[in-house]
Design goal:
Distance between the termini: 41 Å
Strand content: 5-15%
Number of helices: 11
Radius of gyration: 18 Å
CATH architecture of the largest domain: 3-Layer(aba) Sandwich
CATH class of the largest domain: Alpha Beta
């Protein structure tokens, strides 16, 4: 008899009861996800995360008592839970503060249900999933570009020496994995493209993060664009 697959445990944090109920209904359509609790403010979110030990926390930004950014920082510092920020506020300060606080994803509340579910799975697997428009904003900030700027035609001549040092330290396969990641491929897609196992992809990615001194996949994507490994027009 096959063992029942382990479900991904999710905590929903939002100050609006209707939103909490809606998110719970959406996640309930995926039988591999289990909503283990809800919270109506940031302080409850932190307490519930520490008590219930969810795999993923869906976090609203503007909440009473303690805002979502502060709650995210507390949760990521004190537990292994991954946080996906979900908000109606399409503002850069919220985005960057949430990412800096350790969020593994950032989605707007007009996101399609399928993408929300995908973000939860991605976060649970240690990946980061951001809305396409969010990804572009992070890349722009990380590369120091304004929205109207483009990648230089001769990037090698302006490459930061530290970035060049990191690139020189990467193996050919690690470089391939990094480029594939920055192009928007998941671990599964990278494995299929390179004809290796997902475990091998994760090992290569871990090596890239360690060599470059990066925290997560989001920072790895920013580094790839900053190092001009692929042009901005190639992002999904």
């Amino acid at each position: 008899m096959n063992a029942t697959p382990k479900k991904t445990r999710v905590l929903i944090c939002d100050d609006q009861p209707l939103i909490r109920s809606s998110l719970e209904l959406i996640l309930g359509t995926d039988e591999t996800l289990e909503v283990v609790g809800t919270a109506a403010d940031g302080a409850q979110a932190v307490a519930s995360a520490l008590e219930l030990r969810p795999d993923v926390v869906l976090m609203d930004i503007q909440m009473p008592v303690l805002d979502g950014v502060a709650a995210t920082a507390h949760i990521t510092a004190a537990s292994a839970a991954k946080v996906v920020v979900l908000t109606t506020f399409d503002r850069d300060d919220y985005l960057f503060d949430a990412i800096d606080a350790g969020a593994s994803g950032f989605l707007l509340k007009n996101t399609e249900p399928e993408m929300l579910i995908a973000a939860v799975h991605a976060a649970a697997e240690g990946q980061a999933l951001l809305s396409p428009e969010v990804t572009l904003r992070i890349i722009r900030r990380g590369t120091g570009q304004t929205p109207t700027e483009t990648v230089p035609e001769s990037p090698a001549s302006v490459l930061d020496p530290e970035d060049q040092r990191v690139l020189d330290a990467l193996t050919a396969r690690e470089l391939e994995v990094l480029i594939s990641l920055a192009s928007g491929l998941s671990n599964t897609e990278i494995a299929a493209t390179l004809s290796v196992s997902e475990a091998t992809v994760k090992t290569h990615l871990s090596n890239v993060l360690a060599k470059a001194g990066l925290r997560d996949r989001v920072q790895a994507v920013v580094f790839a664009y900053r190092a001009h490994l692929i042009p901005l027009t190639e992002s999904r």
